[in-house]
Amino acid sequence: MSLNRGEFICGSAGCGLSSAVALSGRASGRKPARIEAIAFDAFPIFDPRPVSAVAETLFPQKGAELVAAWRTRQFEYQWLRALSGQYADFKKTTEEALFFAAKLRGIDLTAESRGRLMRASMELKPWPEAHEALTTLMAAGIRLAFLSNMTESMLGDGIRNGGLENIFEHVLSTDRIRTYKPDPRAYRMAVDAFRLRRDAILFVAFAGWDAAGATWFGYPTFWLNRLGLPPEEMGILPRATGKDLSALVQYVTEHRQGAADSAARGKELAG
Questions:
Q1: Average pLDDT over every residue of 147-167
Q2: Are the C-beta atoms of 64 and 56 separated by less than 8 Å?
Q3: What are the pLDDT digits (tens) for 61-111?
Q4: Are residues 67 and 31 in the same domain?
Q5: Beta bridge partners of 40
Q6: Shortest CA distance to 133 belongs to which of 241, 36, 38?
Q7: How many domains does the chain have?
Q8: What is the pLDDT of residues 192-211, one digit of tens each?
Q9: Per-residue b/e over 211-233, b at no fewer than 16 CB within 10 Å?
């Protein structure tokens, strides 16, 4: 989550892909399931750029490298704790990783600077196009949920701060089951909550590793690749990718229309 600010001067209409790009060949050769619900990681919805801005204000010329080290270690600590059976929640692992990153980069992290960085990390607000995209999806009858490693309180705060109340049917935190994605038990939470087949639930990932984990689990996966990164080299691709939530809305609209057309042709042939 170390962000290049030049890549993110985006509004809901101006800088996304003109259309979502299909990546996976798995969809060809078989009838795709109709998308009935979407499970979102937190960061396709919540904008982490303010964390980098605070870090650069506190530590000029060092903020970007601090945030890069912090985020890498944050996920590494979460995965290590999950694999070792030594669970700690998202907030604690985030703080632990911040301490390590500051030491790694030779930065004097005072109580005040630590507090400002942690508050920025815990009090994220939505991306500019988020509200319009989510209300469009909801109006189309798509059921929506968060499926995130963040705690429920963090997700709830983000929803309230961003004016996103009454949009998400479920707010699913892996803290409930004391593990982290990409544990398959974490991805299964959306199947159990929606009571749908996994191929009817589109998972929207921010990170390439999360897109890979969700695809391995069996979700059709949309990688919201705001950073413009290459896919992970693990022999698996998401179903599609796009640069912002507007591209996601376009993909879902086209996918559902294709499924409807396919069903209509099937009825004609059967008739």
A1: 96
A2: yes
A3: 999 999 999 999 999 999 999 999 999 999 999 999 999 999 999 999 999
A4: no
A5: 146, 204
A6: 38
A7: 2
A8: 999 999 999 999 999 999 99
A9: bbbbbebbbbbbbbbbeeeebbe
Chosen domain end from 107, 122, 137: 122
Q: Which of 41, 175, 210, 244 is catalytic?
A: 41
Do 224 and 97 belong to one domain?
no
Write the pLDDT tens digit of every residue in 9-65.
Answer: 233 333 333 356 766 544 334 566 899 999 999 999 999 999 999 999 999 999 999
**Domain range holding 220?**
5-47+126-270
Q: Which residues does 127 contact at the CB level (< 8 Å), separation at least 6?
A: 44, 45, 46, 47, 244, 245
Same domain (yes/no): 259, 179? yes
Which residues share a beta bridge with 146? 40, 171
Q: How far apart are CA 2 and CA 18, in angstroms?
A: 25
Residues 180 and 227 placed together within one structural domain of the fold: yes
Residue that terminates a domain, selected from 122, 148, 171: 122
- Helix (H) or strand (E) holding 164, with range, is none
Q: Which residue has the tokens 């798509």?
A: 142
| 175 is an active site residue | no
DSSP category for residue 9: -
CB burial of residue 205 (10 Å; 0-12, 13-18, 19+): buried
Residues 149 and 249 in one domain: yes
Residues 27 and 158 in one domain: yes
